[in-house]
Amino acid sequence: MTATPSPSFVTLVRTYGTYAGAMMARGLELVGKLGLYMLGARALGVHDSGYFFLCLTVVGVLATVSRGGFERAVVRHLAAELAVGKGRAAGHAFLVGLGAVLGLGLAVTALTAAFAQPLADYVFRDPEAARPLLLSTFVILPQAACYFIGNALLGLHKGAAGQLVQNGLWPVLTLAAVVAGVTSLDGLLYALAGANVAATVVGAVLLFRERHRFVDTHTDTPPGAPGAAPLPALWRTAAPLSVVEIVQILLPSLPVLLLATFGLPAQVGAFSVANRISMLVWVVSTSIGSVAAPSFAARHRQGQWTELRQLNRRVRLAVAVFGTPVVAVMVLAPAQVLHLVGPGFEIAATALVILGVGQLVYCLLPCQEIVLAMAGHGSVLRWLTLAQTVVCGALCVLLIPPFGMIGAAIATAVFAAQLAIGASLMVRRLMPQAF
């Protein structure tokens, strides 16, 4: 007689299979980004690669501002509403969020184009940065829309598709342009914009195929569960999360921006490469956490605390298993890793070790900020990230002018560890049954 696998074993296999699918999509991102950073940096040289990474930083910040927290809010609203059979409310939340992101994206793009030259002259003290900054405005709206649609797919429990759209396609497509012969700074920025447009179109097609899910169905909700009450308006969920998202994209960018002000383009380029290599651990964590996010929201809405706790523990274990080897490589062989990018980037080896230590702390206490966001504790998460801002800003001002890349690395490592520790403590305090 053949033994039947237990439900818990089947659930475990299915869960980690889902994570593996998302990891494959993020693996495509890693290939694309590492290839883009290595080949792009090699083709541009240390000087022009500084401008390229500066533009990537500026675009990342401004695209995040354009999303206004609606991309994180739509994950919660779609997953939670569908979990209790409110498909029409989920569809309405998606349309409201999409309209807000498109409107904000157009406004931010126009303002950035208007102030490109003053930014170059007075903030970065380099008039030659004006043209790259102007060209980077073509990327802002497509990247904001790409991320929003990718998160909407995540809210529909389409983890691999969502990761592919928002993270996997555009780096690979941009890398393909480099391989095809696009090696100038202007050409790379145009290719980056086109790649984000293409990823947005793919995501829109995938979402259109799921339109049948936005209808109401009957689902029993336990009395007293969070699902018995209606969710707040989408903008109320997005408001605190907008602060969180802006801080989370600005904080990694702040050391780069200050280093660009006080340092040389070569230092900016080398530290940017080291910083992005170290954030591979964050990529692993967010890929797994993003797949789990809609399940966090659904379990919380349905009042399934035991299942939520089990899911949270599986997520933490998965991140530790996937992320710890990545940290080990960057800490034990930093110069060798940076040499793969190109000659001259080894000057950031010490910085990479420091960055790796900060990512290790996050790797061991991952994804608790996602649990807070999906359970409706966005205001708590906002205060945690504002505390990060104060600490990171103070460290950047104190350490970057005298110590350059080392100071930037210390500030970056501290804020990464700070969020992991703070979010874990708040989950244990607010929802001990979920930790």
UniProtKB/TrEMBL annotation:
Compartments reported by the entry: Cell membrane
Transmembrane segments: 51-70, 91-115, 135-157, 164-182, 188-208, 246-265, 277-297, 317-341, 347-367, 379-400, 406-427
UniProt source species: Xanthobacter autotrophicus
PANTHER family reported in the protein's UniProt record: O-ANTIGEN TRANSPORTER-RELATED, PST FAMILY PREDICTED COLANIC ACID TRANSPORTER
Matches recorded under InterPro entries: Poly_Biosynth_Transport (IPR050833), Polysacc_synth (IPR002797)
Record flagged with keyword Cell membrane: yes
Gene Ontology CC annotation, any one: plasma membrane
UniProt KW Cell division keyword: no
Record keywords: Cell membrane, Membrane, Transmembrane, Transmembrane helix
Listed name of the protein: Lipopolysaccharide biosynthesis protein
Membrane-topology descriptor: Multi-pass membrane protein
